[in-house]
Amino acid sequence: MGFLDKLVGTVRPKEGTPVKSQVEVRAAVLALNRTTAPWHVREAQADEACDLVVEWKIVDAQWYEVFGKAKLESIFKVLLKLDAEHNEVRALDKEWTVSWNAGIPTLAEVSAFRGQKTETSFGLAYGFTETGALGEIYKYRFSTGEMKSPVKEAITAAGWSYKAVVFGKL
Q1: Model-level pTM greater than 0.90?
Q2: Is there a contact between 122 and 115 (Cβ–Cβ < 8 Å)?
């Protein structure tokens, strides 16, 4: 593995890992979805120019209250493009701004950031709870690694490489 691979986060499968089909890789990444996680993987829409999107569940009613309390002003998505010819998944991070209107999030694409990003947000607040007692109101921690690590593991377990894209096409 070269220096640039390490720098941007390219991960290759362990030597001897059997290579699975593109259909199996897609299924393995989609299988990472679970209701308890604040992120999910979905099929890309036609205008997204990729195959899969990993994103925070910020527009999910179950989660936007949590994200709202965190007062997040920007989030990011990981765009994934499956390349069966090279047995690799190219990954590109794109940042989006979040505006809050009556507690409901609206996303707008930020064209200033394209590449790879590592970020952690966290917070904790104490105050009077519904019972009137002093206690924890909310606690959160959002980390890009929480999204990226399981995706990288699923891809490399299928014998494919996870190639972080900084320059060039997805």
Answers
A1: no
A2: no
